Structure formats: C-alpha cells, structure tokens
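Students often ask what a 'structure token' actually looks like in practice. Rather than answer in the abstract, let us consider DUF5701 family protein, a protein of 195 residues. Its sequence is given first.
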Amino acid sequence: MVEMVTLSFDDQVGALVARGISIDEASFRATVEVARPQRRLERSVLVLSRNVVPVAAAAARVERHGRPLVLGHLELDELETFVPIDAVQLPVADAYVATGIDLGAESRNVCPEDALRDILDAGRSPLTLDEGIALVLQQPDVIAKNWGFSMAGSRRGDQRVPAFWISDGKPKLGWCWDRNPHTWLGTASCEQRAA
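Now compare that with the structural description of the same chain:
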C-alpha cells in the first residue's frame, strides 16, 4: 500500500521549483504565496491554476525515479479537455491547497462511477486531473507498481476518467472507463480546497 506524506507548504513549493515548473522562480514563489495556509495542513497538495501553468506543461514535468511520464492513449494537448465536473468547486485563485487527500485505498476494485458517488455522499470531493498532477509532481511515490489512482473530478464529456499508474516502471497518465473496476486503481479525493 502507498501512503502520501504531509509536506510543509515550503517543501511543496520547493518540489515544484525543483521540477522546473516555472522559468521565473521569484515570480512563481510570489504567485503561490497567496495559497500559503496559516497552519500546517495534513495530507495537502499545492495546486496551480491553468492560468499560471498550463496542464500540459505541468504533466510534462512529471517523473518518478528519473523516469519520465508516459501517456496512455492521450496527447499532451488533450489534457486541457479534462475539466472539473459540476460537483467540484475550485477556488478562484492562481494557486490553492487541497487538503485531507485520500488516495482511494478503499475504492480499489470499485468502478470510478460508484466511487464518485461514495465520495460525494461522504461530503468529500474527487481529485481533479490538475490536483493529481500536482500531487505526483510533489510526491512521485504516491503511485507504485500495482497502485494508482483515478481523478474522477475531471471529465471531458464522456466515460473516460483520467488516472495515474505505473507501467513498465514509468509513471503513466491515461484514462479508464468510469464503469470498469481495477484491483490496482482507487479513486482519490480531498476534504476541501482553500486559497
């Protein structure tokens, strides 16, 4: 089983800088400062607006143990077509923090459609594609062999749900059908989002 760790806000910013997410580090740090929480938040992830870093540019920086991201039946420019579902309300800000993240251990082998219903019934919110990318950028080991997660908070008007997993030792970003369960794939969620 994979567990995410709680990183400080500064460690999250540092991880994104180390991934080369921005050309101008000083400007980047000033931009994300609006999301700095007043206290340490458990299992949180700093997320950037697509206005700050396009989703394709962020995804292109994903790597795990020196191995770059591979895409499964997707092109980088298609990632922007995955947008938040109606049930997901994002802060209107250049950066925000999603807190109380759960990688979906209990929803492994549950189809994303059913997992999404359970997440919403529990008063939680499914992670979006952008949040999942931010998480893997900051903590690449949240995915491992036989352990991945889907991001049911983003859709493109069809039955495809974006997901991260390991394939041939590399981090893979692809999609799975919303009605197909996988023993190695859970549906990730968060408690709340704050800017």
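One point worth highlighting: The mean pLDDT is 96. Ask yourself how you might have guessed this from the sequence alone, and why that guess would often be unreliable.
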